[in-house]
Amino acid sequence: MSFELVPLKYEKNSLGFLSENTLNFHHGKHFNAYVETTNKLVAGSNYEGKSLEEIMRTSDGPLFNNAAQAWNHEFYFNCITGETKAPEGKLLDLINQNFGSLEEFKQKFAASAVANFGSGWTWLVQTGPNLLKIMNTSNAANPLVDGFTPILVVDVWEHAYYLDYQNRRADYLKDFLEHVDWTFVASQMRDVQ
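^ that's the sequence the OP posted. Answer follows.
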């Protein structure tokens, strides 16, 4: 099995908060490099034929870093959309139950992402059937490895936003949270009661 760069589910000029130029570099260059390097590292190894999740759970070093970055990037690009809609149904209920309100969640998520030092990711994960938690990871780390279910992620590596926002990470996060694909996020939830 060879991994492929997953195409975006939207036009590169349609997001309204990230430019086509940013997506050309971030998706077409950065994400693609992780996919290609993962393929090179897997070729002829015991990891050949395994999924990115299996590789992440059982590898380390350069293979882990590239496989996890490939997984993280695909997930991130699926979490965003050009449309602005609010979450609804069980997802909104869980956000309200765990964070007080959607606005409180957005404030806490953005604050956590702004405070995420250096390069990394800020996640909304499920830690149990009706339990949600915001967590930061550094570099290529992924909550799946720790047994959590990721349902939303924002990339806070500077390459994700620097061409459009320079050093204004907080502005990028505010705009990101207005362009979350809540339908995708809801589809990632597990064992909701």
